[in-house]
Amino acid sequence: MKMKNMKKTIIGVAIIAMFLITMMGSVNAASMTASANEVEVNKGVSVTISTNVTMKAVQFKLNYDTSKFEYTGYTSKAGATATVTKTAEGLTFALANSAAPEDAKSIVLNFTAKAETANVNEETFTISGFKAGTSTDKDNNINATAPVKVVAAPVVEPEQPENPEKPGNEDNNKPAGDNTDNKGTTTNNNDKVGTNGKVITKLNQTGTPLFIGAAVVVALAGAVLVVRKAK
Length: 231
Known about the structure:
By secondary structure, this protein is of the alpha+beta class.
């Protein structure tokens, strides 16, 4: 009988211990992720650090290649009074705000990829010494990495027209010997064109017909005079 009671006690203690371990794991869980695996030069990328603990106090060290990324600021519900110190290896972050809301459980660090750093290698953000929450649950240290590759921006070539034509050169595109006008009428190269743009089919009369008419009139007048004298 005593043996059965001992077994029950051992089982009960084991269940409680597993429950406490699970609770501790959930309280102390923390993670770090990058917003993208690749980022173009001069574009932004962010690193998010999250935990189950309200960040009334938080501190950590973030290492990254400072020749590849430029830190531009952070956002968090925990407050905007953090002390951020840039170092040769990255930055250190510390924030204490007892008035932080209960849902203040993440920090977003923003970076810009520098223009001269496009390459084929992945760069990594590495966090260490992370502590958050109160003195009773600040042992949630994590060591995590987030890989990010800096790539060159794509070059967009402007589209070229297939057969570019200069305006006003329509006549130059006609084949040699083609005398077809814009209305589809074929003209002779020897034809003359008037001021109205039309081909002159009959030439204007010159002074020769007028001279002949005058001579006829004079001849008729002489004949009349001769007739009168004869009478």
